[in-house]
Design a protein that fits this description.
single chain, 160 residues, alpha+beta, Beta-Lactamase, five-stranded antiparallel β-sheet, 24% strand
Length: 160
Amino acid sequence: MKPTKLIVLVIVIMALGIPQVFAGGSCSKEEVQKAVDYAAKLLSTKGKAAFPELENFRFCGEEGYVFVSDMDGVMLMHPISKKLVGVNQTTIQDPKGKYFYAEFIGKIKKDKQGWVGYSWMNPVTKAIDTKCTYVKSTTMDGKKVFCGAGVYGISEAGCK
């Protein structure tokens, strides 16, 4: 490949956000935290009226999304798996037996925000991988809720 073609290819890849795909399909913890902070602010200002915007909100190369849950663990909004909406998630275990959703709630109650690591199927590789999820407390229409988003490719120890 000629150097000028290579330069053009690199510029196009950077403009499309494809380096994340080359890096294993993951994005940084900072990008995830920024997205969740945005969602928490949107929920606190718009309430449930923010759901349509959050259902379409993507980050990290269009793969990242945010979910919203109440403090009992009932999913209020999930843009990818609509069948989860209205269902209590606290009894779900990862393949290693960890009740990660209950940990989300524990983290929220203790620190109001934070990271939780667990094992889950990576939709890109179709293999069980460590998923690192950031959750944050907010209010929605006067009710305490939390929102969150996760990223693969970060070790459980790095998910702090």
